[in-house]
Amino acid sequence: xxxxxxxxxxxxxxxxxxxxxxxxxxxxxxxxxxxxxxxxxxxxxxxxxxxxxxxxxxxxxxxxxxxxxxxxxxxxxxxxxxxxxxxxxxxxxxxxxxxxxxxxxxxxxxxxxxxxxxxxxxxxxxxxxxxxxxxxxxxxxxxxxxxxxxxxxxxxxxxxxxxxxxxxxxxxxxxxxxxxxxxxxxxxxxxxxxxxxxxxxxxxxxxxxxxxxxxxxxxxxxxxxxxxxxxxxxxxxxxxxxxxxxxxxxxxxxxxxxxxxxxxxxxxxxxxxxxxxxxxxxxxxxxxxxxxxxxxxxxxxxxxxxxxxxxxxxxxxxxxxxxxxxxxxxxxxxxxxxxxxxxxxxxxxxxxxxxxxxxxxxxxxxxxxxxxxxxxxxxxxxxxxxxxxxxxxxxxxxxxxxxxxxxxxxxxxxxxxxxxxxxxxxxxxxxxxxxxxxxxxxxxxxxxxxxxxx
Length: 454
Ligand code: ATP
Fold this sequence. Notes:
Layout: H1 2-10, E1 14-16, E2 28-30, H2 32-51, E3 56-59, H3 68-73, H4 75-78, E4 80-85, E5 92-94, H5 95-103, H6 112-121, E6 139-142, E7 146-148, E8 158-160, H7 166-170, H8 173-179, E9 186-195, E10 210-220, H9 225-242, E11 250-254, E12 266-274, E13 278-289, H10 291-300, E14 306-308, E15 313-315, E16 318-324, H11 326-337, E17 338-343, E18 346-351, E19 362-366, H12 373-384, E20 390-392, H13 398-408, E21 412-416, H14 420-423, E22 425-430, E23 436-440, H15 444-453
Parallel strand pairs: 3-9, 19-20, 19-21
Antiparallel strand pairs: 1-2, 4-5, 4-6, 7-8, 9-10, 10-16, 11-12, 12-13, 13-16, 14-15, 17-18, 21-22, 22-23
Helix pairs in contact: 2-11
Bound molecules: adenosine-5'-triphosphate.
The site of adenosine-5'-triphosphate has 16 residues, from strand 10, strand 13, strand 16 and helix 11.
EC number: 6.1.1.14
Binding site for ATP: 196-198, 206-211, 281-282, 325-328
GO biological process, one term: diadenosine tetraphosphate biosynthetic process
């Protein structure tokens, strides 16, 4: 992990937030390469889930919603983690994690009373900081960030920063069905920031208090939900593997029935085997039934049924929800792609990112700063730069320039050399195979497009 964190900083992927002030815990900023990479992840999700499908539309709802939304969804009452305070160090921990780390038992879903009893009785459970065993009773802690709208800080002005993007979709179900021509089965997709006041954030960008989500609610006729759930499990698995994640580092995790969230009939996570924390969730794919729409119908007084004109049936749709986090996914892509290897007797660090995910798609190198090589290279760069992020580099030896791009994950380097003026050809070098291909200048754009989308 230290290696990845240092690498991310050195190459401008991720910085500690407010670093010149000593940093703020669990907040990170995405640097020049990181922002490109995260955008590519979100774009690939959007392209595959929205643009390439006729049955999914997009949405961008507000972060601050009517507070009743969170009463209806159950977040006000139950979006809690169990908090335990150590009286010896004054630190606060997630009680389930404290129990699990010390005993190996599975504490998820236990009540506060059960956890308090276990912590009191099991000597193996100690304050990780000072080894103390004097804990206050476990209590639920609501993870929603609270703030106020307007100038008066009074209880009736309390609002929340959304803890998930999904509710913005449910409350717009009626708007979308009335203003577009969608027909069940169909989905509404959304990406955006979510906020959770996590008790113990950590593991770099894996768990932060401010993060992004990519969620899609796919509305189906009740009775077809189990089939659609299977369908989306397969689709989402294929998304990762088609973007180059090693399938050996991926697995499905089926949530046991008794541990399901209050809204779910079945939930399966896609997990990634992170070297620093083992199998961990990248994405949850849940059958949320008709819970949310029914709750919002009840709390708002609106009718949120769907009328199927084909069958003349009226029903509240069931929902299959793939819910993913681009920050976590970016960490998985980085870890999966990072290699230190020996090539021709030299060592190199390389990020073997899929071209669609790589921050920079190609670099253009003039072999020399002299004419006509540099002018030809500039012209080529100017011609291609509107298509995707392209990098121009004319400093240092060609070997160094390659190594810099290998580290940044750039899949292709295009070199203009002394022959180019004569034969009107350039060389495209492949980051992974190191093979070099001679291509006419006029064919470079098409060749790169093919390689990148391949
Ligand atoms: P966890 O059990 O790890 O807290 P969760 O089950 O609460 O996650 P969901 O509510 O299913 O997470 O959210 C969907 C996705 O949003 C997660 O799979 C993850 O990728 C992302 N996500 C959730 N919480 C965070 C966070 N604190 N930081 C970064 N990403 C997050």
